[in-house]
Structures are given as structure tokens and as C-alpha cells.
Amino acid sequence: MCMVVIINHFTLQKVQQYYPIRGHSFLPCDRDFGLIKRYMKKKDRYYTLHEITGMIIECAKPGKFTVKEIQPSDVYDFKNWWSKYYKKHTVSNESANKPRSEKTIFAISTLYHFVYDSQIRGYITAYEQINGLVHHTFQMAVVNLGVNPIIMPQNIAYPKGKVPIKQAKLADVKYCLKWVPEEERGFLKSILNWPKA
């Protein structure tokens, strides 16, 4: 969904997105994630996001990784925004007139290659295999994006500055505190005062 928004809102002509089959990828990013994973395995415990951020920065030569910790003010209310412009469920254009059992419904877990093209705004061309022959075209836009420009979300998702947490998760955090060393409890204790969902 984010790629559709990027293509429709910014000046990119075409974006191709691939989801490699698990265990079959030897892309440079996989080697980078392997570096991080090996480094993190050497650590016995870590309790906060700041520790994990530090480990990612330390695990490789200086400047290899840049890490930005997201603040609540960086997160916009996408959940209430997207339904004005995009569909949640859609059927491919190629199977629209077929019987119900033969229709192809957009399911991201069954598709591995997506093409977002500014020439056909609001549509995604999806392939069942990377660079496959069989493709499906899905209309994701509710409105004609050529006529009605998208207004990006303006509202912050968490105006109170904290993400609401479910009562059950708060109970789990409280229960786990007894195993966390006293010097590491500050962050977890602060979570107990966050808004409840």
C-alpha cells in the first residue's frame, strides 16, 4: 500500500518490489542482516531499544549502518487515512468476469513481485513468481487518482506521545520485571504508565 502511495504522490515513474523466497536470497542486505544477527547472538541479554540500536551500529565498520529511532511524532495516522483512497479487498482485472471460484483476490502472501507504475495510477501489477509470465492487475484506488490528488495524512497517530498497550501485555511486562536487573528496569517501569488500549 505504501508503494502505491509513493508512486501516486511523488515523481517516481516505476517501482519494482520483490519478496524473495525465504532461504533463497543472497542479496547484499541479507549479508548485512547476518552481520547483525551474529553480533546479537554474542550478547546474553538486551532490554531496551537503545541497546539494540547500539548493537546494530557497533556490529560493522563505522558508517555501514544508519539507525533512526522513530519517535511518536514521526508516526502519522495511516490507519484512518488509507480507506478514503484505497480498497482493502480487490479482485484482479483479469479474473473479474470469471466464476467466484476462479477469481484471483489480492493476497500479499501469495505474490512475490509487484510493479507500481505512474502511467496506471492506483493499480498494482503483481506476479506469482519473480519475473514470472503470469501477472494480475489489481485496482487498489477507490477514486480516480489522476483527477483527485492524494492528500497525505496530517494527524499524528498517537497524540499523547505513547502507543496504547493492551492490559494483558502490561500484565506480562509487570510479571517479567522480577527477572530484569534493577539497573535495567527504568524503561520497563515507564511502560507501565503508558495509556491502556
UniProtKB/TrEMBL annotation:
It comes from the Eukaryota. This is Uncharacterized protein. It comes from Cacopsylla melanoneura.
